[in-house]
Amino acid sequence: MKQQLQVMLTLQDEINTVVNKNWRAQNFAWYRAIWVESAELLDHYGWKWWKKQQPDIDQVKLELVDIWHFGLSLELQQGSPAQVAEKMLRELEAGQREPGDFREDLEAFTLSTLASKQFDLPGFAQLLADTEMPFTELYQRYVGKNVLNRFRQDNGYKEGTYVKNWSGREDNEHLAEIAAELDASAVDYSEQVYRILQQRYRETASA
Fold first, then answer.
1. Mean pLDDT, to the nearest integer, of 86-99?
2. What's the pTM?
3. Nearest-CA neighbor of 64 among 37, 101, 104?
4. Window from 1-10, 103-112, 138-147, 150-159 with minimum mean pLDDT
5. Could you tell me what percent of the chain has a pLDDT over 90?
6. InterPro entries, alphabetically (predicted)?
7. Helix or strand (DSSP H, E) at 165
8. What angle do CA 173, 62, 72 make, to 5 degrees?
9. Residues 6+ apart with CB under 8 A from 164
10. DSSP-derived secondary structure letter, 21
11. What digits encode the pLDDT tens for the residues 28-69?
12. Contact of 119 with 88, CB cutoff 8 Å
């Protein structure tokens, strides 16, 4: 887990630096992004008592991964990836969490975030338990999304020249297929994902 934390923290530091080289000094309102994402997350889970709603768990997990991006950014304000990984590991390993009431746990997490303007890691861990999302799945989903974002930027996303659909499928479908075939525990997992994405994209462009 420590190794995977360091990988994710390093990847987040890199993508933040692409957006702004001095991102740490800018004091961006990461907590506000977490708050807004939490509201979107609740919509996917369902909260309206006047209509039938079924939680869209896959979309809920995607939103949790987005929140994780912002949480990692807040944690990185306190030190290097290696230093922060140690702190986060201690918090994640402190106590066994059982699934609870997701809506109430999400509200508690959001309140803590707004009050402290920091990342409530224990609260986030409870949300993972509520959705039965193991840390290994969080890692795989996070790395995939991070790599895809970087891949898009490297291939003209900002300039508007990047095309998301290849061979009749969106890039995130290619990503899911690639991720399912790789060993997420490999030290170079993110590099493997990027390399195969690039290979597929080039083959499609030259076809």
1. 85
2. 0.83
3. 37
4. 150-159
5. 42
6. dUTPase/dCTP_pyrophosphatase (IPR014871)
7. strand 165-166
8. 120
9. 152, 170, 171, 172
10. T
11. 999 999 999 999 999 989 888 888 888 888 888 989 999 999
12. no
pLDDT in tens, 127-138: 999 999 999 999
CA angle 24, 107, 36 (to 5 degrees): 45
Give CA–CA dist 79/56, Å, rounded: 36
Write out the two tokens for 82. 């290696």
For residue 113, what are its two tokens?
A: 């975030």
In 14-111, at which residue ranges do the beta strands (DSSP E only) sit?
Answer: none
What are the b/e assignments for 128-154, b being 16+ CB within 10 Å? bbbbebeeebbbbbbbbbbbbebbeee
Q: Does 140 score more than 60 pLDDT? A: yes
CA distance linking residue 169 with residue 67, whole number of Å: 26
The rounded distance, in Å, linking the Cα atoms of 70 and 34 is 6
Domain layout of the chain by residue ranges:
2-133, 137-206
Select from 18, 181, 5, 162 the least CA-distant residue to 76. Answer: 5
